[in-house]
Write a structure and sequence with these properties.
Strand content: 5-15%
Largest sheet: 5 strands, mixed
Number of helices: 31
Radius of gyration: 34 Å
Amino acid sequence: MTPNASGKKKKKRKKKKKKKAGSKITDEKIDIPTPNIIVANFTPVIDPLPLLNLGPHDEFSDLLHSTPFELGESQQGKCPEKAKQNPDVWDTMTDTEKDVVTKLQQEKCVVKTVNTSSWTSFLQKFPIKDGEIGGGRWRLNAGENASLGTDRRKHIIFSQKQQQTLQPFHSFATSTTLLPPCGFKMRCYGSIKQYPTGVIFALPTTFPNDNSDEAQAADRTNTWSWPSGYSAKTEYNIDPRGNLTNGRADALVSLGELRRNNYSYLHDTSYEIMGKMVEGGLRTVPFNEIYLRVGGTNGDHDSDRNFDDGVGLPIALFVRSATYSDLTALLRLRARLVSVLGRDHVRGIPLLFITPETGVRVLTEKLQKKLLLVMSNSLNPFQNPHLKHKTNISNTSEMHLQQKLEELLDLDDDGIRDVLTPEECARVAGGYGATDDSVANLLMDAVLDDFGRDCESADSSSIDDQSKLRKGKLQDLVNEGLTAAVRAGDYNTSRQLLILYTLVASKGQQDKNRVRSLSLVSTEGLGEKDRMQGYSLPDTERLQKELSGEFEHNLNSNMKRENEDLIPTIAQENNKLSNQSVPPPPPPPPLDTDRLRSATNSDGLLAVLGAAEVLKSMQDGNGKRRTLEAVAAIDEWIDKSENSVSFRLASWHQLKAAQGDLKIATEQDSNFMAFISNKAIDTRKKFAKELKDAVSNTQFESIDFLKSIHAILSKMNNPCLRLELLQFILGLDNRYSVAHVIRSVELAATCLNISAYETMRANSEYALTK
């Protein structure tokens, strides 16, 4: 054969191949119906929720555009008149806010920025610990008293005796800064990224001769001041006897001199910084440092403040940027002060925005409510970034968790619920965190509204209570909150919402039944206060402690409790209920979490959303139906496997393919030898028997069902088909491994346990009243 001939044959073969390929392409373009294969519980791709308009690094424009306070030009510190001439700002401020702004303008207060990671240690210095009679004086160091004269030591001893009966807080010395009037031109200590927020302390003002007496009091009490730009570093420059070292004492100046320097920075074109004249001025000047004693008194009255025993608690909080991340940190900081120092001492504390360029602006109550509106509608919710990785389901620090609980916002405070809708409040609770009491009150109000609408219905007695609840506001609020929690990736808030939802739904249904049993078919004529008394949660303080304690226990153990720890707890609750002759409450009305589960891959959120789906399967009867279907499927597989090795091999091959293609959540790949021998048959026979026992011996709407499922899960080693069937029974998707399913079942049991306890407790109290 010639080379040309062979070449022609090769070309012909290539043409034939192209024609065949072309025919395939042509065939594919023709619309031929193909079967749509749907794999149950399969979630191939995580589809996150769409982002909202704003992020944490965007700025709150309403605050930036608010009118700043102006400087007086004639005399130092005479600025309040200027502020009063601007009624759109001054008239909207509270008396406390006006007082703080006036002190800033007259340089009668000092500021302190605190590192984000140091707020805990700073705040914990104020409260009196358990067992202490009264506030004590924290010394500068071990040798402070030894460095002072005899008269001063006597004064300290006398002061301590006074504090044991009068001073409600400890006092301690710390570094602060005296800003120029209105906070202009001087930068505070630290970078805005690391020190975004700070506190303001008022200076004592009860000096007859003002500056001269103030200077003497400061000198007598070791209240030290250094000029702008001087790096005092007092933590490194005090000896064991309380004396300044390394020349720090030689650079001290008076508070009056600091005020004169501040005035020069604002109004002169040339001024002195660190002994050098600056011509032409600077846009910003470095901070000065004042080392004084804070705390001691609560500072309700100016006469209570002094340099000896402390200038009191902070009179205001401030933030250094208008970004939503820093403003949210400011709101959380205020919540921490309420938690650590007490609401009575922090009530109405002003929130300020201070920068060297624009001076001081007040985050008034009106602006705070606008901020919350933006947070609930347009801002992508976020956790505290410094706590996020320390408070999840698999890695929890007790210290960071305690801080997270202290930062919870109070939705019942300052008329927030008069401005935000219930849905917006739920988004704030789920996205940023809110206190248990305020969330419970929000959900209970939704139950009252649903009940009121039911009572107004002409045919309310013929409508099933559960079907009415499905159409009510309660589930909508919880779904809004869970959606915000998924956006924020916050396991803690989602878990709180689910537990409180279960409790409130149970309480609401219980009170409905009680009212109906007394033939009280309407609440018309009752005031809102009377209605709330009939439906409010009992002992919410105890409930909050119980939720937080159980919450910490679950987190610290990383959700790895053994089966024997869970079952006795459930059994004890059931015994209590049976002894009290009180039927356990049913699961709450179902929540629609399908979209949310497909939007996250967080272990913690999957556990919470899985628990909601488990409760839904129990409540709507699907759990029972799916269990019966699973038992029938296993029996059929066993019948065929016992008589055919080839069927078992084909079953193993199909399972391997599913594991490879669909990434089904299994602990390990399927063991080939288990299918060759009878091990797989024996394992699934036992699994089928356990499911049959669960069908015949348990109520699917009670904790007994969860106890049976938990017992089955605790004995699983390398499940494949068994895990897939349990996912099917509980309504979970293929991402739920054994660990995920156990977490979901345990959380669902926790919800029903707390609900059952409250039902038993409420019925006991009701029986006593009768």
